[in-house]
């Protein structure tokens, strides 16, 4: 390898290589990418790695490499590093904070000691921080709250102490947060409730005290919550029962008291619970997660009852003190309630008599209005919107009759006494996360048919020809699929790219394919690169300016399912012009 003076990309991962890494692997300082993960390399880091000042991406995880991470690995890649699963030791350097473009730092399952550097808060593009299963001590730096791009923080299985800094609550994009198996104390910050995208939260096996913040119930995306083996007290917040995505809940080995909130009766997504070793009492919620729970998950509480293994049945009779209270309530309230109902009946009867005289005249007007109602609406969308807003009082919650995953349904009575159901969709939230609720029109129609309708779709996703043909068919959905597929690949709406593809000059033809991908994620390797390239080609073919030249969804499905050929070029050299046919076969 001494003769490879122009080596840029070296990938040795997922093999059974043994022995030592080549000592002169970076003698010339040219490598940009060095990947040797999932092998059996052992011994120290090559000394020549210190010369690799241009390193962009390093993956040496899951080997048996040894040495002091601060001395033997004195390099700081610009984008991605994973050294997990080796036998390295030493302390983390403050120089990691100088890597302002670093997106992923993974150094877990090692013997790393010392404190987490405060300077790490200066690596503002960091998306993944995994320092789990080490020997780190000291406090969690509040400076981590500056890392607004963080998606994952994994600091579990260390010896961290102090409190959880409230500044962490500013990391609104977090999906995974684990501080389990440490020596953290104090209360759980209420600011954590701001994490609306969080999927997994694990604070177990610490010495946290105080109560569980009710703001935790605001994490509507949370799937797993574990605060077991702490010193938490108080009642279980009823807001936890309203978490619609929660699947696993572990509150065991604390000092929680009171009864389990009735709000858990609607927790249909909950599949696994553990509330053992607390001071809870009263009936368990009437859902499968509690009924199918093991004895170990419910044991050692003050007095739980209900339909579960190991629990006694709840009493069917009403206690005497509750019965007496109910009798006093009836004696005081019932007479006044009957009197009020009598007065209301008289008022209603008088109103009916008066309204009957007016109704005959109104019926004629209503009949005429009903006859032309939807004909007028078809030509005046603004009037439709204003009528609905006025009748629904700005979509007041009292008119809401149902809530779904993508919107709410309201019962609205229009001026012509026409009662309609109006669905208010949430297609494009602030994070610009598109939903597919208006891209399935074509599958409701016959395969070769088309529909004429008013333009009612999501701008930015609908086919270009809809603006002048108003004709909805399968090719419209194919175009929308292409836009959505590119949005997932790019991490943003591809509006600028589509506009450039439409341009006769095609100004983005020299763009590298890797620069088009979501910059928050690490670049794909091996088989994933082929899949990404295939998806980009298919998505762009769906954007053909001529609808008849677009593939069908069946053809798209077949292309996505076929095996992809090996790439002849590296992802670092593939240009967008190689994906797009400049002769006009795409957009």
Note down, in words, how this protein is organized.
- With 587 residues, this protein is α/β, with parallel strands linked by helices.
- The protein contains 11 helices and 30 strands.
- Among the domains are: 91 residues, Alpha-Beta Horseshoe (Leucine-rich repeat, LRR (right-handed beta-alpha superhelix)); 47 residues, 2-Layer Sandwich (Phosphorylase Kinase, domain 1); 138 residues, Transferase(Phosphotransferase) domain 1 (Transferase(Phosphotransferase), domain 1).
- 24% of the residues lie in helices and 19% in strands.
- Strands 1-3-5-7-9-11-13-15-17-19-21-23 form a 12-stranded parallel β-sheet. It has a 7-stranded parallel β-sheet with strand order 14-16-18-20-22-24-25, with no helix packed on it.
- A hairpin with a 3-residue loop joins strand 26 and strand 27.
Features:
30 strands, Transferase(Phosphotransferase), domain 1, Phosphorylase Kinase, domain 1, 587 residues, 7-stranded parallel sheet, disordered C terminus, alpha/beta, 12-stranded parallel sheet, 19% strand, Leucine-rich repeat, LRR (right-handed beta-alpha superhelix), 11 helices, single chain
Helical percent range?
10-25%
Unreliable residue stretches: 318-325, 371-379, 434-439, 441-447, 582-587
The tally of helices reads: 11
Strand order of the largest sheet: 1-3-5-7-9-11-13-15-17-19-21-23
For the record, the CATH architecture of the domain at 442-579 stands as Orthogonal Bundle
DSSP strand (E) fraction? 15-25%
CA-CA gap between termini: 45 Å
Largest sheet: 12 strands, parallel
Mean pLDDT across all residues, rounded? 80
DSSP E strands, number = 30
Judged by helices, strands and strand pairing, the structural class is alpha/beta
Backbone shape: flat
CATH class of the domain at 442-579: Mainly Alpha
Per the CATH scheme, the topology name of the domain at 442-579 is Transferase(Phosphotransferase), domain 1
| CATH homology-level superfamily of the domain at 442-579 | Transferase(Phosphotransferase) domain 1
Radius of gyration: 31 Å
């Amino acid at each position: 390898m001494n003769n490879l003076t122009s080596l840029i990309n070296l990938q040795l991962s997922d093999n059974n290589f043994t022995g030592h890494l080549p000592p002169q692997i970076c003698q010339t300082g040219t490598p940009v990418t060095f990947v040797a993960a999932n092998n059996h390399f052992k011994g120290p880091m090559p000394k020549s790695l210190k010369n690799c000042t241009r390193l962009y991406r390093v993956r040496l995880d899951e080997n048996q490499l040894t040495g002091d991470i601060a001395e033997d690995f004195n390099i700081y890649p610009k984008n991605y590093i994973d050294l997990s699963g080796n036998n390295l030791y030493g302390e983390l350097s403050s120089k990691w904070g100088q890597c302002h473009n670093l997106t992923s730092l993974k150094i877990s399952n090692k013997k790393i000691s010392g404190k987490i550097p405060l300077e790490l808060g200066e690596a503002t593009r960091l998306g993944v921080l995994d320092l789990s299963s080490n020997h780190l001590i000291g406090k969690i730096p509040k400076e981590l709250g500056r890392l607004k791009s963080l998606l994952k923080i994994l600091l579990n299985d260390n010896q961290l102490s102090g409190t959880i800094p409230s500044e962490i609550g500013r990391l609104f994009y977090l999906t995974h947060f684990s501080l389990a198996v440490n020596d953290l104390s104090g209360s759980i910050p209420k600011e954590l409730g701001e994490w609306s995208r969080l999927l997994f939260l694990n604070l177990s096996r610490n010495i946290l005290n105080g109560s569980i913040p009710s703001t935790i119930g605001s994490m509507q995306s949370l799937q797993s919550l574990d605060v077991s083996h702490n010193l938490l007290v108080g009642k279980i917040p009823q807001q936890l029962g309203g978490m619609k995505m929660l699947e696993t809940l572990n509150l065991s080995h604390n000092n929680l008291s009171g009864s389990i909130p009735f709000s858990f009766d609607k927790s249909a997504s909950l599949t696994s619970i553990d509330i053992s070793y607390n001071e809870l009492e009263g009936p368990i919620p009437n859902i499968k997660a509690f009924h199918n729970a093991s004895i170990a998950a419910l044991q050692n509480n003050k007095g739980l009852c209900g339909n579960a293994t190991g629990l006694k049945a709840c009493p069917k009779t009403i206690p005497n003190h509750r019965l007496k209270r109910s009798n006093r309530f009836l004696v005081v309230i019932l007479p006044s309630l009957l009197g009020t109902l009598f007065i209301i009946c008289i008022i209603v009867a008088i109103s009916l008599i008066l309204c009957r005289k007016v109704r005959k005249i109104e019926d004629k007007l209503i009949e005429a209005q009903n006859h032309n109602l939807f004909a007028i609406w078809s030509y005046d969308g603004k009037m439709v919107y204003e009528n609905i807003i006025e009748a629904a009082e700005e979509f007041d919650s009292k008119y809401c009759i149902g809530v779904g995953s993508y919107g709410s349904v309201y019962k609205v009575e229009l001026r012509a006494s026409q009662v309609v159901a109006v669905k208010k969709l949430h297609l494009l939230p602030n994070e610009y996360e598109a939903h597919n609720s208006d891209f399935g029109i074509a599958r409701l129609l016959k395969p070769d048919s088309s529909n004429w309708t008013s333009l009612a779709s999501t701008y930015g996703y609908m086919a270009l020809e809809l603006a002048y043909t108003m004709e909805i068919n399968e090719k419209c959905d194919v175009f929308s699929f292409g836009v959505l597929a590119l949005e997932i690949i790019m991490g943003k709406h591809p509006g600028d790219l589509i506009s450039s593809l439409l341009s006769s000059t095609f100004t983005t033809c020299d763009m590298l394919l890797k620069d088009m991908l979501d910059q928050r994620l690490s670049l794909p390797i091996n088989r994933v690169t082929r899949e990404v390239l295939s998806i980009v080609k298919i998505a762009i073919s769906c954007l053909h300016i001529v609808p008849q030249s677009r593939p069908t969804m069946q053809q798209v499905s077949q292309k996505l399912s076929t095996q992809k050929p090996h790439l002849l070029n590296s992802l670092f050299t593939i240009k967008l012009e190689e994906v797009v046919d400049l002769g006009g076969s795409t957009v």
